[in-house]
Write a structure and sequence with these properties.
Helix content: 40-55%
CATH superfamily: Winged helix-like DNA-binding domain superfamily/Winged helix DNA-binding domain
Largest sheet: 2 strands, parallel
Keywords: DNA damage
Oligomer: single chain
Protein name: Alkylated DNA nucleotide flippase Atl1
Number of strands: 4
Structural class: mainly alpha
Organism: Saccharothrix longispora
Number of helices: 6
Domain Methylated-DNA-[protein]-cysteine S-methyltransferase DNA binding: 6-79
Pfam family, one: DNA_binding_1
Number of domains: 1
Order of helices and strands: HEHHEHEEHH
Strand content: 5-15%
Length: 107
Amino acid sequence: MDEQLHEMVREVVRSIPSGRVATYGDVADIARAPSPRMVGAVLNQDGHDLPWHRVLKANGTCAPHLADEQLRLLREEGVPSLDGKVDLRAYRWEDAVKEKEEPPGLW
DNA sequence: GACATGACCAGAT
DNA sequence: CATCTGGCCATGT
């Protein structure tokens, strides 16, 4: 049923380049997800294969239980975090795609 | 169908 | 910065 959506979200997350991050809202927007909540839901189920650590909350922080792991992985990829927060202004991947509205070749 | 839960978001106080 | 409020919507009981 929501297979379509699942694949979409996964595809988007997979396309986040190393050293960049995106917010749940952004991913939801790009993947045409009905709501950001779904992104989290999908990652929770099928996110094991994906670079889920490149997905943060809208304020630049990560979900509580993942915080430690998240920040560590990001740091290894070259994304510094200050006080548990990432500077979205500088590392937000969506910035490059935002104007386009939709990633090419996805459909 | 009602109700609770969750890797969310934005605005107001 | 901390809370609250309302909205979001799939999943499970």
